[in-house]
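Researcher: Next sequence.
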Amino acid sequence: MSISATFTFFFVLLSSLAISAFTDNLPTTYDVISEYNFPIGILPKGVTGYELDKTTGRFLAYLNGSCSFSLEGSYQLKYKSTISGYISENRLTDLTGVSVKILFFWLNIVEVVRNGDELEFSVGVASASFGIDNFYECPQCGCGFDCNNVERATTLRSDPGPFLSSF
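Model: Next structure:
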């Protein structure tokens, strides 16, 4: 093997190791939302990647396909394969890709605001607040928190009621 071929081989090898080390140290999507003071459970398990423009707060989060599940038998949630919006401390705005079924209608969740120990979810004309302790764990696509037919010990607490307050 020639010296230049050997040098090229080692350069390519070292470059790939450096790129691998760099990408392995990137924060996960769950790390990033925690940096903005949100619990990881606002996203389901299995987020495959994200993009974030730290100057504007514009983000994209990617799932491997769409995702849906029920929580406590009362709420049905749907996540598209791409979720987008703007993130800042305690606030997610202009959300797309997340919806909740209320009665017979699917409504887009357009904003999430953290206010102390509560998260307020808005569908535009109405909102509902839930205790942050409901979001310490990530739900799983297809089964939510009841993936082994074992009910979650806590119940989803809401205040004042599911999507009853309006603007």
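Model: The radius of gyration is 20 Å. The chain has one domain: 28-166.
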